Amino acid sequence: MYKGVLFFDYDGTLVDKNEKIFFPTEKTISSLKNLQNNGYALCLATGRSLSYVPECGIDFDCMITNNGGYTFYKNEVLCKKPFDKSIVNEMFDYCSHNDIIAVGENENSCYCNNIKSPMFLEKIHMFNLTEDLFKQYNGEEEDIYKFFIIYPDHSYFKKFEEKFSSRTKITLPHLGLTSCDINPIGVSKQYGVDAILKRFSLTKENAYAFGDGGNDIDMLLAVKNSVVMGHHSPLLDGKGDFVTDTVKNEGIYKALLHYQLLEE
Hints:
Layout: E1 4-8, H1 26-37, E2 40-45, E3 62-65, E4 70-73, E5 76-80, H2 85-96, E6 101-105, E7 110-112, H3 118-126, E8 135-136, E9 146-150, H4 154-164, E10 168-171, E11 179-184, H5 189-200, E12 207-211, H6 217-221, E13 225-228, E14 242-243, H7 251-258
Parallel strand pairs: 1-2, 1-12, 2-3, 7-8, 12-13, 13-14
Antiparallel strand pairs: 3-4, 4-5, 6-7, 6-9, 9-11, 10-11
C-alpha cells in the first residue's frame, strides 16, 4: 500500500506561533507532496480536535487527533477512546469551581466552561483560533477524547494534578505555559501510531515521526526514525535520533534530506 508513513505534529513542528508562522511553509508543502507522489503516507498527529485542524495546503492521508484520542484513515475510524462520562462531569465541575478554564473536545465540537474568559480568549488567539470554533459547555453528553485546561499559575495545576493524575494522563506543557492537555489513561499519539502501522501493514522501521513537545514523546519512541525540531521543549532533550532546524529555517525539509527521503 505505502512504502512508509511520516507522522507530523502540527503546532511547533509544521507551524510556529512564536514566529507567527501559522501555516506550513511552501517548501514544507512541496516536499511533502513529493513524498506522497513517491509512495509515502502523510499523517497529521496533533493534540488538536479535528474541528479546528485548519486547511493548510497538505492533503493528509490519515490523522491522529486529540493526542491519539481519535484516529482515522479516510472515512475509517481506526481507534478512539473517550473519557468515562462521570470524570468528564467531575473535571468540568472542579475547574468551574476553582478558576480553571476547561475545554473538552471530540471530533466535531469543543466545549468550554467559560467561553467569555479573557484567559481562554488570550490562549486561543495565541494559536490563531477564533471563538466560533468553541461552544459553551452545558452538560452535553457527547464523547470527550481530550481536555485542555488553562490556569492562572502553576499552583492551580498542582492541585488539579493531585486530584486527577491517578485517573487521567496529563501531558506537561512547555515550560512557562499555564496550560496542559489531559487524555484518558492509555491514550497518547503512540496509540494512534500503532493503529496506523497495523492498518498499513508497516513496521516502525518504515515510520518517521516529527515533534517538538511533551505530547510527542510517546510518538517519537514508537518509530525507528524520530526527529526533534530545533525549537523544542526541554522534555525532549535527549529524545529522538535527529535534531533538525526550526520551522522558520525549514527544519522539516532538512530532516527529509538527512534521511535521504528527498534529493536537493
